[in-house]
Amino acid sequence: MPPPSHTAFSGHHLPFVGFTYTSSCVLSDRSCLRLTAGPPSMDLDASIQRTLEDSLATEAYERRIRRLEQEKLELSRKLQESTQTVQALQYSTVDGPITASKDLEIKSLKEEIEKLKKQVTDSDHLEQQLEEASTARRELDDASRQIKAFEKQVRTLKQEREDLNKELAESSDRLKSQAKELKDAHSQRKLAMQEFSEMNERLTDLHSQKQKLARQLRDKEEEMEVVMQKVESLRQELRRTERLKKELEVQAEAAAAEASKDRKLREKSEQYSKELESEVEGLKQKQVGRSPAVSYIEYQQEITKLKADLEKKSVFYEEELSKREIMHANEIKSLKKELRDAESQQLALKKEIMILKDKLEKTRRESQSEREEFETEFKQKYEREKILLTEENKKLSNELDKLTAMFERLSMNNRQLEEEMRDLADKKESVAHWEAQITEIIQWVSDEKDARGYLQALASKMTEELEALRNSSLGARATDMPWKMRRFAKLDMSARLELQSALDAEIRAKQAIQDELNKVKASCISTECKLQESEKKNLELLTDIERLKKETEELRSEKANRGRCIDSVENFTLSNTPSRDEDTKSHLHSRSRSPSTASETEPIEVMDHPPRSIHTPTMKTAYIGSGLPALKPKAHQFVVKSFNTPTKCNQCTSLMVGLIRQGCTCEVCGFSCHVTCADKAPAVCPIPPEQTKGPLGIDPQKGIGTAYEGHVRVPKPAGVKKGWQRALAVICDFKLFLYDIAEGKASQPSVIVSQVIDMRDEEFSVSSVLASDVIHANRKDIPCIFRVTASQLSASSNKCSILILADGENEKSKWVGVLNELHRILKKNKLKDRSVYVPKEAYDSTLPLIKTTQSAAIIDHERIALGNEEGLFVVHVTKDEIIRVGDNKKVHQIELIPSEQLIAVISGRNRHVRLFPMAALDGRETEFYKLAETKGCQSIVSGHVRHGAFTCLCVAMKRQVLCYELNQSKTRHKKIKEIQVQGNVQWMSVFSDRLCVGYQSGFLKYPLHGEGSPYSLLHPDDHTLSFISQQPTDAICAVEISNKEYLLCFSSVGVYVDCQGRRSRQQELMWPATPSSCCYNAPYLSVYSENAIDIFDVNSMEWIQTIPLKKVRPLNTEGSLNLLGLETIRLIYFKNKMAEGDELVVPETSDNSRKQMVRNINNKRRYSFRVPEEERMQQRREMLRDPEMRNKLISNPTNFNHIAHMGPGDGIQILKDLPMNLRPQESRTVFSGSVSIPSITKSRTEPGRSMSASSGLAARSSAQNGSALRREFSGGSYGAKRQPMASPSDGSLSSGGLDQGSDAPTRDYEREDSDSPRHSTASNSSNLSSPPSPVSPHKTKSLSLESSDHVSWDS
After folding, report:
1. 591 near 610, Cβ under 8 Å?
2. Residues whose CB is less than 8 angstroms from the CB of residue 1341 and which lie 6 or more positions away in sequence, other chains included
3. Which side of the chain, N or C, has fewer Cβ within a 10 Å radius?
4. Which superkingdom is the protein from (predicted)?
5. What does pTM read for this prediction?
């Protein structure tokens, strides 16, 4: 019977595997078990037994050797005797005849000789054996010696082991004792620390007593001063009384003189009266005859009248005299009394002063003696304890060092042994693995050889049998031949099939090995790339370190040369007046150092504005506390001051930017400088006039200083057509500052910066203009106009220019020369660009929802939540899909709460807070939760409380804040607290279990869990912060820099305070312009104003970037999404260059987009933003009309590899095997062309949507539609961790869409089947397929489309 046809499965060719067992083999279980299980004492017993057996064997050998030597002696004797007899017999044969008996003897002797010969040979053998035995004996002796030596070694080792055990026990005892000592030492140290703390407390008490005594001293001194003042006042009163006394004496003398005059007058009047009487009598006598009665009566009347008058006058004068004398006497008495009282008071005061002085001296002496005694005692105690502790520490440290050294040695030995064991195990495993693989491969090859040999033998046997059958059955029937032939053909086919299957298996094995090798190579390449990147980073870090070292050295050298002024940049010094230098009338005030220059005729005085200057005693030096100001002070008396116009620092020549408190000024000499430059200012006050004006220029290393300044004109906001307005331009700190000046001759520039252009910008350039550039300008002005160009000035285009009109052509050439020269120096010195944000348009501005957007939030890297007048919408920026959430109108604010899977919004006319679940963002119909108590709320904020135990939602309503705990109940919220605020809530946030609330001129922190009183972040006792409460300013935001420091941002200034509300930094953050709002994204603070966004680093307090976008409003708290309110309202995304990866994928946008918002037919909440079909057809027609565009659409074949010729029906099966119905999740992953998604790493490029030109007409039109790419990223590829995706160089995507969720199958498919006919048949496809592998064989059969599920075409 012939063998069966399927011999490959019979098992006859398989090798048999046997197992052997040997007792003495190392690999056997018994010996291993004996070696592992037997204790070391058993090994010693075995060795002793072996030595005993060897000693017995040697004794037996010695006995045998002695016996053999005796036999040898006997044999040698017998030999000699036999030889003698033989010789005698020979001699006798010569002499006489031989008898028969002798013959017999001879025979016997011969036999004996033979026997003896045999014995001799045996003895030789025995001698050899003896020699061998002697050598063995020597070896045994050596072995016994070695055994003895080993035994000695074993004994010594045992002793050492015992010693080591003893040492170990001792060391453990020592360790325990040392641990106890350590504990004792720690307890002693604690006691010492307690004593030290007690002493500190006593010291503090003494200090407090000293301070109290000092205060009492001050109080007494003040009382002394008051008493002295009283004494001086009394002295002054004494002087006044003396003056009055003198005046009164003078008056008394005058009165006495008047009285003497009156007396004389009286005497004269009496004499006159007597004369008159005599005359009257004479007249009487004469007129006796003519009417004597009438005349006499008249005369009598006149006489009586005159007498009455005389009496009245005399009485009056006497009364006056008496009155004045009484008054004089009274005044003299009172003055004498006052003098006595004053003298008595003075004496009493002098006595009190003496007593107080004695008491003061006594108290001083007593306190000083007590303090000195206490200090000496404390010092002695401290030194004693210190010496004791240091000694104990030294002892303990020495012992610890010894123990640690021992422990390190033991641990090192253990580690080495473990590492050796691991290495050996790894090597064994790897060797066993490779041996197993090699044996398998060899087995496969041998099996194949055996199978081939067996088949050949079978075939030859069959042919022989057939030949024999042919020869034997010549007379057989003709019908048997076809059956035999068929049987032979079947056998031949079965053999071929078996060979083919064996070959296929071998090829598969080789392919698998090749795949593994390729994977290993790829991993090696990736590790090499990573190594190279890390080396590059290390080199960059080293260069940064060197640069920083250089900077520190430069800083040290500058500190050493503090007194010297900053020189101009590379001998590039310019005059302070860009206009006429001869005009002496217009000059800067030497103290103010204003940036306004002499281009105008009127002089500008900056410091003569006392109404707005705010003096606070924060910067005053030692001379302020003295009683009377010195005439020539040696140090400056600096006071923080607010300037009304742009002012330069006299020390560093930079502008003092800010709205208030820009710098400090010396009250004596008027030297003005930054707060930080006050320490570097010249120590002499007043400063010599030659030092007040330093040379202008910028330090190229630091970039600090003013290079040039002057008055220019800039276009009005409406454009050049409406005219030009005056402005002050200053080139300072490698920036161009522009300050607006109001109309009018006497008007001055305000401190608010209207525009800032940074010269560090890559696109910065300065150039003249042509008449075509400024159409509406006057022809005479064109030669005086120049243009400053920079990037980031507009969202629609990367560049934008500012036109500046100088006073003349010379002025223009000066400005252009200065700016170009400074830009060249800046490039030469390679000052680092410190910009953080790159503004990009987040979505197409033609979307109607953007125009009325009130707030926004970034949900993930592809979705934005927009709240506007219509409601809440979710925009998928890459899919161009829009989902409406809820039915509410006018969303004012959005707050994402991912920890609770909620989104909180303020919506509706009544401004209620509503809570939506995150599932609603996908368009699902879900319930929302309305907070009824929150009607008319202003803002909301959420945060974690109790280290993330629960989430708190705070709602601000005028002067009230409602706090809710978010939970998993039906309503999802629970009210926990109601907080009343001092003023209207202007800002709030949650800082580490506390709610920080900002109101006018203040910030308060309220506890969110538990009861507790709020505390202010502006301490009332800190007088340096009193200016905030004096001038009411709005609270914009607060920043928690650390647990111990906060930054409080007000509308006028930013202040750093500690956790108690006291000032932590002397320097303040200065705003270039009036801020409207602030956003914080650690560690950068974005301050929004009307014309720009200024970025500050809150840690270093540096103004690092200005984004000159006008009318920008932030839409979220981080400031990443903003609304630009120009002619076309745009949604702007600020990309952070310092962050790892992008928070949002920014698509390509255009202003000429014809997209429209279309509602989905099936779902009323879903919209799509796309170009209508008619517009698309029109675009196609326009493209097809252009032959150049048509040629560009069809690309040449790339990566074309000829594999095999296909017959007319070979490709039908492949087409049949293609999947007809796509799964829904795969239909979303459709690409219409090859797409390159850059890897998201630290240094990755912007993830845009780039398309190849070969993607065809449909791809072209769909690219304009904005919906060409439909990307589905794997689960967490763009989430919180931002795992890096494969770059296009790795061949991650090929033509046709690939599902990103299945990375490994696509890569395998692309690697294995890159040379398949499917890739080569389409000649006009520009795919990114990898070149064919040199190991992979050319397949002539039909291609298996295992990964065809991942391929789909856009419908």
Report:
1. no
2. none
3. N
4. Eukaryota
5. 0.48
Name residue 992's amino acid: S
Q: Is residue 804 packed enough to be buried (19+ CB in 10 Å), middle (13-18) or exposed (0-12)?
A: buried
- In the numeric block, which tokens belong to residue 1198? 């790339």
The span from the CA of 741 to the CA of 107, in Å, is 159
Which residues, 6+ apart, have CB-to-CB distance to 1115 below 8 Å? 853, 854, 855, 856, 857, 1121, 1122, 1123
Average pLDDT on 63-73 reads 84
Q: What is the DSSP string of 419-486?
A: HHHHHHHHHHHHHHHHHHHHHHHHHHHHHHHHHHHHHHHHHHHHHHHHHHHHHH-TTS-TTHHHHHHH
Residue 888: phi, psi to the nearest 5? -75, 160
Give the separation between CA 428 and CA 422, rounded to whole angstroms.
10
Query: pLDDT digits over 234-285, tens only?
Result: 888 888 888 888 888 888 888 888 888 888 888 888 888 888 888 878 877 7
On the question of pLDDT at 930 being above 70, the answer is yes
Question: pLDDT tens digit string along 1103-1130?
Answer: 999 988 888 999 999 999 999 888 788 8
Separation CA 172–CA 174 (nearest Å): 5
Distance of alpha carbon 704 from alpha carbon 652, whole angstroms:
7
CA-to-CA distance for 689 and 674, rounded, in angstroms? 20
Q: Please tell me the distance from the alpha carbon of residue 88 to that of residue 668, in angstroms, as a whole number.
A: 157
Residues in the chain: 1355
For 59, the token pair is 């004794």
What distance in Å separates the CA atoms of residue 240 and residue 1167, rounded to the nearest whole number?
99
Is-contact 1016 1029, C-beta < 8 A? no
The residue written with tokens 């033979």 in the block is 114
Distance between CA atoms of residues 477 and 225, nearest Å: 156
- Confidence at residue 178, expressed as pLDDT on a 0 to 100 scale: 85
The pair of three-digit structure tokens given for residue 774, joined into one six-digit string? 């400024």
Task: Say whether 335 sits in a helix, a strand or coil.
Answer: helix
Q: How far apart are CA 1130 and CA 543, in angstroms?
A: 41
- Which amino acid, 1275? G
**Angle subtended at Cα 126 by Cα 125 and Cα 128, rounded to the nearest 5 degrees:** 65
Backbone angles phi, psi at 714, to 5 degrees: -120, 155
Cα–Cα–Cα angle for 97, 101, 102, rounded to 5 degrees: 55
Closest CA to 882 of 1172, 1131, 1168: 1168
Kindly give the pairing relationship between strand 1035-1042 and strand 799-805.
Answer: unpaired
Cα torsion angle, 466, 468, 470, 473, sign: negative
Contacts of 714 (CB under 8 A, 6+ apart): 724, 725, 727, 738, 802, 803, 804, 805
Q: Give me the residue label for tokens 């059956």.
A: 483
Measured CA angle at 167 (ends 161, 172), to 5 deg: 125
Quickly count: other Cβ atoms within 10 Å of residue 1300's Cβ: 19
Q: Phi-psi region for residue 671, left (φ > 0), alpha (ψ -120 to 50) or beta?
A: beta
Q: In the sheet where 1045-1050 sits, what is the strand order?
A: 1035-1042, 1045-1050, 1054-1058
Distance CA 1053, CA 150 (A): 89
pLDDT of residue 776: 83
Q: What is the DSSP string of 1134-1154?
A: EEESSSSS-SSPPPP--TT--
The percent of the chain in helix, strand and coil, each rounded to the nearest 5, is 45, 20, 35
**CA atoms of 1199 and 1086, how far apart (whole Å):** 51
Q: d(Cα 50, Cα 147) in Å, to the nearest integer?
A: 10
Site of tokens 């009036």:
1074
Cβ 877 vs Cβ 862: under 8 Å: yes
> What span, in angstroms and rounded, lies between the C-alpha atoms of 42 and 35?
10
pLDDT band at 295 (very low <50, low <70, confident <90, very high): low
pLDDT in tens, 501-536: 888 888 888 888 888 888 888 888 888 888 888 888
Q: Which of 321, 374, 443, 59 is nearest to 201 (CA)?
A: 374
CA 264 to chain centre: 110
Tokens read off for 865: 């939540």
